[in-house]
């Protein structure tokens, strides 16, 4: 977003010259004269197609049964047919990621995660998300951003670029650029277009604002949950690319009131039936957090962290955030070693550090080695304990404990326990680890928000998680027969 704001003055000063060279078209969606960055529809489609496989890989693969894929795609196609680009071949993909996210790439490629589907309460909310992404594509927002990025690269002097060089610069921008957020103006425009498409199909246009509110409460919960973890752990979530300030919710509500839809479709019951049995949270191939333990049924290892530490799993490492900025980071180096763990810690990993207290350990039958060093960070001086565990010649895991100097002694026993908790998972134990799934339950007499929340298999924030998942409050009176989502292990 910063980048877009910065680019406005040079763009404006370029005036007609740049527009003439790089292309400017009347946009049927926005009605305005739109700067296209010189991208033709064929180039748009090419960019979208080239990144399709990479995006699927980055976000855990494609999720869902053929029926679920058909369901989501069907809603997307109906919306896209009402758009200003009905001839463009849109595709809608559900990604196997527990993150809450949705985005579009040029040429008609729209993506949503199963994490986002789990959060939505009805078909109209899902339609709102898809319609918003279709809006980014019909309004040529990518082309505008690519155009700006191109201008940033080439500057004024080379405004005469054509052909091959132009194409090369586009591909160099890569996936990161594609997934970057849009400007606030673009977000509002995509909301406005999305509400237009929803209304044309007959969906409740108020569902767009409804889902934005749900996103806001989900992000408050994850902030609470994350404690003091760095934002980068969650850099690919929806709110990072689609900020939903209160003002955006308000605008979406006002727009929805203008849209005159008779008997608007919400389709809650159908939607919830599609969610029943859906994988929730981590896929077994990413590993599970269970209270203070981390268990990886596919890579077959487990360890636990002390009370007061909160575990967070990411694709690169497992983090545990503790008191006073203390933390534990576990990862798997890409280059293992043939030598001993003592050799690995002292020569390979800690080769450039001043190590102390180097020793070899045996941890649950695994060869391990550990040493300490001092580290200066932005947050002050820390003691770092480096520990490496050898599974076999191809696989080692390494753990870093960072503790502020003042806390090192106090936390020493806890962290020692964490070291000695690292173990291989037996086949039978790995097989018993079941992923969490979403179940749709019918409220019975006597059920309350609190009593249902207590059934969720979490050690913390049960009530808050249940409230956010269902978009309800603990003060709400439940109706007998009402359907709600719950997280379950079976
Ligand atoms: Zn957006």
Task: Please describe what this structure looks like.
The chain folds into three domains: 272 residues, no CATH class; 145 residues, Mog1/PsbP, alpha/beta/alpha sandwich (Protein Transport Mog1p, Chain A, 3-Layer(aba) Sandwich); 54 residues, Membrane-bound Lytic Murein Transglycosylase D, Chain A (Roll). Helix content is 44%, strand content 21%. It is built from 17 helices and 19 strands. Helix 6 packs across helix 7 and helix 8 packs parallel to helix 11. It binds zinc ion. The site of zinc ion has 6 residues, from helix 5 and helix 8.
Short note summarizing the structure:
The chain has helices at residues 2-22, 41-58, 66-81, 114-119, 123-138, 141-154, 163-179, 184-201, 207-226, 238-241, 246-258, 268-275, 341-349, 408-421, 427-432, 449-453, 462-470, and strands at residues 24-26, 33-35, 91-95, 102-105, 109-113, 279-280, 288-290, 293-296, 301-304, 310-313, 318-321, 327-331, 356-363, 366-377, 380-390, 396-404, 423-424, 436-442, 483-488.
Write the layout of secondary structure elements.
Layout: H1 2-22, E1 24-26, E2 33-35, H2 41-58, H3 66-81, E3 91-95, E4 102-105, E5 109-113, H4 114-119, H5 123-138, H6 141-154, H7 163-179, H8 184-201, H9 207-226, H10 238-241, H11 246-258, H12 268-275, E6 279-280, E7 288-290, E8 293-296, E9 301-304, E10 310-313, E11 318-321, E12 327-331, H13 341-349, E13 356-363, E14 366-377, E15 380-390, E16 396-404, H14 408-421, E17 423-424, H15 427-432, E18 436-442, H16 449-453, H17 462-470, E19 483-488
Parallel strand pairs: 3-5
Antiparallel strand pairs: 1-2, 4-5, 6-18, 7-8, 8-9, 9-17, 10-11, 11-12, 12-16, 13-14, 14-15, 15-16, 18-19
Zinc ion is lined by residues 132, 136, 182, 187, 190, 242.
């Amino acid at each position: 977003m910063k980048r877009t704001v910065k680019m406005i003055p040079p763009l404006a000063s370029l005036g007609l010259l740049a527009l003439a060279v790089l292309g400017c078209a009347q946009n049927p969606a926005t009605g305005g004269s739109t700067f296209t960055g010189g991208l033709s529809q064929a180039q748009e489609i090419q960019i979208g197609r080239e990144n399709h496989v990479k995006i699927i890989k980055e976000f855990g693969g494609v999720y869902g049964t053929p029926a679920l894929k058909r369901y989501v795609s069907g809603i997307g196609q109906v919306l896209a047919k009402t758009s200003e680009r009905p001839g463009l071949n849109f595709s809608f993909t559900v990604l196997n990621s527990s993150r809450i996210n949705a985005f579009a790439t040029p040429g008609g490629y729209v993506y949503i995660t199963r994490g986002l589907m789990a959060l939505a309460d009805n078909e109209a909310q899902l339609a709102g998300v898809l319609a918003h992404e279709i809006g980014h594509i019909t309004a040529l927002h990518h082309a505008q951003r690519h155009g700006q990025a191109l201008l940033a690269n080439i500057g004024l002097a080379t405004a005469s670029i054509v052909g091959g060089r132009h194409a090369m610069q586009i591909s160099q921008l890569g996936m990161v650029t594609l997934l970057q957020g849009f400007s606030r103006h673009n977000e509002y425009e995509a909301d406005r277009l999305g509400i237009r498409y929803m209304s044309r199909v007959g969906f409740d246009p108020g569902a767009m604002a409804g889902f934005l509110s749900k996103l806001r409460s989900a992000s408050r919960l994850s902030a609470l949950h994350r404690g003091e973890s760095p934002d980068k752990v969650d850099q690919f979530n929806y709110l990072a690319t689609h900020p939903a300030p209160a003002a955006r919710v308000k605008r979406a509500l006002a727009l929805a009131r203008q849209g005159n839809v008779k008997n608007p479709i919400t389709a809650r019951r159908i939607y919830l039936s599609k969610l029943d049995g859906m994988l929730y949270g981590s896929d077994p191939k990413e590993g599970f957090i269970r209270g203070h333990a981390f268990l990886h049924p596919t890579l077959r290892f487990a360890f636990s962290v002390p009370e007061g530490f909160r575990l967070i799993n990411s694709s690169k490492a497992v983090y545990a955030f503790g008191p006073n900025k203390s933390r534990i980071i576990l990862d798997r180096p890409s280059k293992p070693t043939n030598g001993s763990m003592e050799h690995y810690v002292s020569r390979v990993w800690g080769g450039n550090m001043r190590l102390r207290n180097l020793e070899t350990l045996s941890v649950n039958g695994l060869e391990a080695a550990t040493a300490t060093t001092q580290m200066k960070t932005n947050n002050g001086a820390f003691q770092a304990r480096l520990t490496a565990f050898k599974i076999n010649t191809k696989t080692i895991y390494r753990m870093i404990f960072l503790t502020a100097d003042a806390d090192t002694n106090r936390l020493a026993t806890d962290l020692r326990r964490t070291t000695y908790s690292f173990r291989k998972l037996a086949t039978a134990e790995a097989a018993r680890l079941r992923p969490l799934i979403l179940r749709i339950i019918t409220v019975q007499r006597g059920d309350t928000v609190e009593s249902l929340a207590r059934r969720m298999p979490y050690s913390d924030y049960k009530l808050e998680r249940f409230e956010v998942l269902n978009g309800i409050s603990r003060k709400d009176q439940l109706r007998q027969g009402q359907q709600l989502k719950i997280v379950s292990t079976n």
